[in-house]
Amino acid sequence: MTTHDTSSAGFHMADFSSFLSYLSDAVTAAWPDRFATRYRKVKVLLMSWDRDDLGVEPEARKLEAVFRGLYHYDTEYWKIPSRRSAVELSRKVADLVDEHGQEGNLLILYYAGHARPSEQPGGSPVWAANRGRDSPTVQSSILHSFLGEVDCDVLLLHDCFHQVQENKGAFVGQGVVETLAAAGGAEPAPTEANDHHSFTASLVQELAHAAHTADWLSVVELHRRILNRMHAWTATLSFRDDAYSVVQVDRRTGQPMFEQPRRRTPVHSFLSRKPKTIVLTPLPHQVQEQSDNESLLLLNPPTPQSQTTPTMGPAILVTCRLRDQRVDTEKWRQWLLGAPEEAKGIQISALFPGFGAVLILELPLAVWDLLPPSPAISFIAYTTGSNHISEFRRALLGSDADDSSSDTAEYESDGDDGFGPGKHHKKTGRRRMRSGREADETTTQYRSSLWPDFFENNRASDDSAEHTPYCLTLAEMQGDEKMSKAARVIRAFVQEADEPSSRYISDEIQEFCAPASFEALSCDPEGDPDLVAILDEPRSNGTHPGAHGMKFLTRGQLYEALVSRAVPQLIDTESKDGNSSERRLIYTTNLDPATTLALAAAAPERHALPLRDFVYKHLSFQSDMDVRLHSSGVQGFSLSFHLPFFAWRQDSHPFTDRRRGGGHNGPLRGSRNISFLNKSGERIQTCIHEAQVSCLIVGVDNRHWTAYGVFDTYHDGGESRHDVRSYQTTQGGAAMDPLTCGRHMADSSVADAREYFLRAMESCVREVKEEWENTGRQVMRALKHQVSLGTGFSLTMHDRTNRAQK
């Protein structure tokens, strides 16, 4: 594995709330209701080979004795035959599922022996009887084929190498399916005869200990205990393999030599879709005849090594990437207060700005085991103690280290800031996130004005991220050869919408943009003469663009203009009130897949998320007004409105929308022929068309912002006064502002973001209101005319409606 693997760097969760939802699912699954987890019946099948060369049977028999004698489970020890292995294993598992696969039961399948990686990429391991080249083998995936639709819970215990697979699509039953294996990745099979550090030996000790000290033991807790035990080994003295057992010594130093058992990391896999861990509890005792071997079985108490291991260790260090840099401290504090006692060890160790926010978290192993998979969350390492960064900083910088005001110190926790339990320091000058009375005063200050004061200041940044096409950069970093560049850009554009709760956003945009390609965006005015957009931005000399500063662009020209400079340069000159200002206007009509690709690819990071929601609401024909003020993280704001309407048009050849969308093969915007309302003898066709006007403003402060305007004009067939070409015709050399529906001059547009937003909304509301009034009045006139025809109106109306629909 390369140390420079950045394949997951482009994946982000939408925001902190999405991360908390993921965390809540894992906590709920890790610590379920302890009084609703008993099973009616538990069946345990322990398997090894009849030609096994590891000597696993003695330890497997001990495990069987624990399940039968202490947990009172129904157990069976079965050896996989060397002949017709796959057939016999299939028959055995099938019979077991038929007999015990009902809801309310638990099925435990244990295997000890050799395992080899599959020759197929991503395939399940291959079980082997021995080390020989001609050893009998069987595919472990046989178990999955029979367990995919069972309604009982299933626990798979593998004392061997096991490649973790989380193909939840293959497990569609009602039960929980979990796997606990001795080793994952490329580690060798750990099972050896008489190995006190083996996976099975650890299982025996921990299950036996839990049976006498607790009423229940979850599989994720069992994973934690076994991980502690298998890593808490000490070096053992090495002897020569002869009849006299001579101690081996180093010839150079004369010191005794020690053997060190291999470090093994047991792995947990949550296979089913049901978010709940299996809980093992002893069943009511039933008197059974025991053999002499079972009655004389002695179990070793927990070793001193495991007793010295931290109770809740090890923990898991992970990183989580969020697109929205806001981390709500109060929301995090409230979440911790409502979490189970066992989850109080969850901590946010660090928070960094990046292409979004980067969280470094410490999670209990149980939470990590059951955390829903997400490419935005990455494993870092196991940890067995608290964060020592403070001690390291003091040792490096001396006693004044705590007085430093580095950026990273801003996010350090002292235990009362909502980031998790931490140590209190008597002497500290480090900046921390506001909490308590200071936070309340700050909140009160901001709430006194809905528009924060700092948006009134010049906060324009020279950060390179503000000048970088965000989604295009992510697409180039991912470099998936199976997907086109356009598909990768759109995937990056909607990636946070891949969560189940917001999947509809991703589906809507991806289906609409499927035909788009960068070949269609080649900047060739002669090959693509269709002008689809207007770009209005300040000139380099600081003067506001007039009639000749407004650019009329094709799709390719729009892409080239945006991607070459994602955010325009700041103006050095100052306005009359002494504050520099800059605004950019992007206007397009009849938003199509290629234009959407151009906007998505060129959008800087600050614009990506608001623009994605804006595009979705426009495509889905929604009415909406949204105001978002980001006062933490990447500070800024977004203002938007969406005004849908129905346009009444009469023409001998009515125009319809040629775009495809809405999750079907029909047009994006619907058109309804209502010619049955026409007067008798009229040959002109009457239609009502769906249309929408949408506007979005994204800014860093009140005088540095970008406005997007998207208007539907298809129903006028290129003759609308809102078409791009219509704004090329000026009156007296003055250009009109398209985002205000041409009601205001472009060179008189205000620099204040809120004032411009209200001006644009006022103009668009008036325009949409006129369309609604025209449609309503025309429909009423037609209905009055039909009513005046007499009592035959209802029948005539019904017949004409049927004919029109046909």
UniProtKB/TrEMBL annotation:
Protein name: Uncharacterized protein
Chain intervals with Basic residues compositional bias: 422-434
Positions of the UniProt region annotated as Disordered: 400-445
Biased composition (Acidic residues): 400-417
